[in-house]
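anyone seen this seq b4? input:
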Amino acid sequence: MIDILKRRFGLLGRNISYSFSKGYFTEKFNDEIFVGNSYENFDIADINHFSGLLKNNPDLKGLNVTIPYKEQVIPFLDKLSKKAALIGAVNTIKFTKNGKLKGYNTDYYGFKKSLKPLLEPHHKKALILGTGGASKGVAYALDELGILYTFVSREAKENIIDYNLINATTFDNYQIIINCTPVGTSPNIEACPDLPYEFFTEKHIAYDLIYNPAETQFLKNAKERGAVIKNGYDMLIFQAEKAWKIWNK
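predicted toks r here
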């Protein structure tokens, strides 16, 4: 059955010309069964421009949300799914039939589904590098997988350690290291989180939410020490397909 509805979707973010989502959904909509659907970037300098965006685009049916608005967009929404409320971050917005905006989180789903095949019994604890919206979805997924975790940031706070505390003992205790920061994203591909990479081993998983480049410096450094590595591409595919199902249910 051919979908002849003219429906508009898009990505909300800042400095998002690199967007995975636009390319992915544009290619998807080129398929004849999705005739009439379109996807575009909505690059805004400040979240307070969101209301104007909605006013100027009354025919939108759904949005993805990326850095830096996954948390900032929440006050503008009418409702959150139970999981989005628990996570405290939104990366998918559905425009309901009665004109309301409902926020969902599909990041946790994409991350969980992409990490699960890599897990072995000795993978008990994870370090989450970064404390932004993406890290919250990752933490929720780890909770569901029964994996304990600790957040890492440039400044130590309650329940958060700083990079200076990471040493050989840390790597003995934490077998999964997840980069949820933008450090290493194209074009700054030589950058990487400040870690003692010599302590990675074949028993570690290094997971980077970044997908461009496909192998970040963080992943290269971990790979040299024998770690299993994974970038964020599969996570993006899984979360995008989950968003598509949400928009169409």
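The chain has a mean pLDDT of 94. The first helix runs from residue 20 to 29. kinda curious what u guys think
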